[in-house]
Amino acid sequence: MRRRALPALIACTTLAIPAAAWSATAPADAIKYRKAVMSAMSAHVSAFMLVNFGKVEHQDHLKAHASALADLGAQAKVLFPAGTDKGDTDALPLIWKEQDQFRKLAADLEASSAKLRDAVAANDKPGTMAAFKALGESCKGCHDRYRKADD
Amino acid sequence: MNTVNPGARPGSRKPPGRSSRAAALLFCATTLGLALPPDSAAATDPAATVERGRYLVHAGGCLTCHTADRPDAIPLAGGRAIKTTFGTFYAPNLTPDRSTGLGGWTDADLRRALREGVAPDGSYYYPVFPYPAYTGISDADVASIGAYLRSLDPVRQRTPEHELPWYLSSRLVMLGWNLLNFSPARFSPDGARSAMWNRGAYLVRHLGHCGECHTPRNLLGAVDKRRELAGNPQGPDGERIPDITQDRDSGIGRWSTDEIVLFLEYGVLPDGDFAGSSMSAVITDNTAHLTAGDREAIATYLKSLGPPAHLP
């Protein structure tokens, strides 16, 4: 065992150097990832509404959409690293100029999506409606100030 | 790009003849009564009139333009810059301050301002103020709006002067503009349509003045009524304002009535995205405050519009 472990260890350490260098994500990929997460969130919102407002059955799916929104909502704060203001993105440079305010809005999203998950889990209908409204306010608030208007 | 600060907001045609106008009023009072917010007591109870005025000020979108674009701005105290292709306009102070606001205005002053675009001193407003839409507002609604505005705390806040090119610097220019583009007329309900549709038409065309942004304008800056709500590539602040006709591709023809209602309440699009841009403020200041019935009325009216006419 020991004989075999040594070359493995050497291999690991030599590989670790380039691996560390590779770990710096390309801004273009960070932007793609951000868009993918945002799209996933809107898809869950759309599905959530169809169930929540009684357009389709599947009440038992509501939890899955609300939990996914809470998980993804908590990720938003790390999706805007420095250097991802340029490229194929609608994110406005103002985000990186107003980091404090932007972080506050990201924290709002995390909190409101967690509330939605909890209200759905507790089968609290009025709470769910209120949390959905609050979630919408966080989304709108951020898009309003930090996303390029459709042009 | 409109930069409204989240959290800065509070809480949240044809002119009818005399006889047809009377009939229209009667129609309003009887048929539309059901779709209106509680107002039956408004005529006698001053508090109810003020409350109804507060509702109408939201439905009229007054807050969005007449509140400055600052987190600490006082609602309706004016000062917001509105950038248009004709220059930058500053929305005035609507609080009842005597020197900088509407202090001392009578209902007649307000009727003339809202429905004819003329100030108490006889000068003309520029049509950035949507009097061509507001001209349809009923007497009762103007009176309620006046009662609410008079109930506000007066705020002394001077509005900056408009920044306009030389050819628009005289307000008399608007006399000619009005002759070409404007004819005052109250809303006249269409007896062939439902009360819901008529309420929606009143809100969309007049009080809510949706077309002021969503309808394209001609070279003189007048709303092109032949293309109602077909979108405006050069909207306020240079923003592209979308087509909201029933065109299935360029408009919202694929949206259901319920989807329009949800959008007006929450700002959520059918694909789960949330509106940003200037519509976000319209939802926060206006449509989110409406009764469910009024949102449904707006959606009903919008669903009744055909695709835009394709003009050469």
**Main β-sheet of chain B: number of strands, strand sense, barrel status?**
2 strands, antiparallel
Q: Helical stretch count of chain A? A: 6
Percent of residues of chain B in beta strands?
A: under 5%
Shape of chain A: globular
Choose one word for the global shape of chain B.
globular
Structural class label of chain B:
mainly alpha
Classify the helix fraction of chain B into a percent range.
25-40%
Quickly count the domains of chain A: 1
Characterize the main sheet of chain A.
none
Radius of gyration of chain A: 20 Å
Question: With helices defined by DSSP (H or I, 4 residues minimum), what is the helix count of chain B?
Answer: 12
Mean pLDDT of chain B: 86
Describe the structure.
The complex is a heterodimer of chains A (151) and B (312). Helix content of chain A is 73%, strand content 0%. Chain A is an all-alpha fold. Chain A has a single domain, classed as Cytochrome c/b562 (Four Helix Bundle (Hemerythrin (Met), subunit A), Up-down Bundle). In chain A, helix 5 (99-121) runs antiparallel to helix 6 (125-146). Chain A contains 6 helices and no strands. The model of chain A has no long low-confidence stretch (mean pLDDT 88). Chain A has helices spanning 2-22, 27-52, 62-75, 94-97, 99-121, 125-146. Chain A starts with a helix and ends in a 5-residue tail after the last helix. The longest helix of chain A has 26 residues, at 27-52. The radius of gyration of chain A is 20 Å and the shape is globular. Chain B has 312 residues and is mostly helical. Chain B has one domain. Chain B is 38% helix and 3% strand. Chain B is built from 12 helices and 2 strands; from the N terminus they run αααββααααααααα. Chain B has a two-stranded antiparallel ribbon with strand order 1-2. The longest helix of chain B is centred in the first third of the chain and has 14 residues, at 18-31. Chain B is globular, with a radius of gyration of 19 Å. Chains A and B meet through helix 2 and helix 6 of A and helix 10 and helix 11 of B.
